[in-house]
Design brief:
The protein has about 260 residues and is an alpha/beta fold. Helices cover about 45% and strands about 15% of the residues. It has a seven-stranded parallel β-sheet, sandwiched between helices. Helix 2 packs parallel to helix 3, helix 2 packs across helix 9 and helix 4 packs parallel to helix 5.
Length: about 260
């Protein structure tokens, strides 16, 4: 596969990478790919059992198996623990991949403040906090940040209001911090996936039948005629995190089969 061969060009063998949301979906796929590219990994997620499963799929790096740090990034002390544990274990940080995120269904008429707070706490506030903690270490390594946003940050869609708003915030965060940190040679970019086959929509409440219809509709709304895979997103994250993207910062890379460019449906 052409994409897979391109990914092997990205050498991460001297890099320490911290990946959030690493227990499933895009985060898990990114962890496995980064391990193949030689990165030393710190992985965090809420479920230790799922992190262990991902770890077993990772190839040993020069630093051995990934460092696993179970944590809830909505808890400030947990977020500090994640950064402290990473630096204590590896002594440095080159790459931060902010992948943790949740989806809540609902419109302005049906989305409660509790839902709104939950989405923004996970998708925006925790990302803000962890990046803030990472910056002093990234300055030392002239490292970079890759944020996992969404096509929902670029386009407007009904009935996912809080999620849309949170991903727009992630995109603005990406651009602003890219400008703020460029003089320190820290790059900040985002990927903006379209519909990717993960558990995101199921966790938001779609049952089997609704999820099946959702994926079927994606074949019509995405010009390439299908939803994407977590591996496809991971390959783009690896590129942006690598030295192959050394002159790219403040970018939003849609990985959405053309969904961002298509007419609304």
């Amino acid at each position: 596969m052409a994409g897979a061969s391109n990914a092997t060009m990205c050498n991460l063998s001297s890099k320490v990478a911290l990946i959030t949301g690493a227990s499933s979906g895009i985060g898990a796929a990114t962890a496995v790919l980064f391990s193949k590219l030689g990165a030393s990994l710190a992985l965090t997620g809420r479920r230790e059992d799922k992190l262990q499963e991902v770890s077993e799929n990772c190839v040993n790096s020069s630093h051995g198996k990934p460092l696993l740090i179970p944590a809830d990034l909505c808890n400030e002390e947990d977020t500090k623990k994640v950064m402290d544990a990473t630096i204590k274990h590896y002594g440095k940080l080159h790459i931060l991949v902010n992948c943790a995120g949740i989806l809540e269904l609902g419109s302005i008429e049906t989305t409660s403040l509790e839902q709104y707070d939950r989405v923004f706490n996970v998708n925006v506030r925790s990302l803000y906090h962890l990046t803030m903690l990472a910056v002093p270490h990234l300055i030392q390594t002239k490292g970079n940040v890759v944020n996992v946003s969404s096509v929902n940050g670029i386009r407007s869609f009904a009935n996912v209001l809080a999620y849309n708003m949170s991903k727009s915030a992630v995109d603005q965060f990406t651009r602003c911090t890219a400008l703020e940190l460029a003089s320190k040679q820290i790059r900040v970019n985002s990927v903006n996936p379209g519909v990717i086959v993960t558990e995101l929509q199921r966790r938001a409440g779609l049952d089997d039948e609704a999820y099946k219809k959702f994926l079927e509709r994606s074949t019509q709304t995405h010009p390439l005629g299908r939803p994407g895979t977590a591996d496809e997103v991971a390959r783009s994250i690896a590129f942006l995190a690598s030295d192959e993207a050394s002159f790219i910062t403040g970018a939003q890379l849609p990985i959405d089969g053309g969904r961002h460019a298509a007419c609304p449906r």
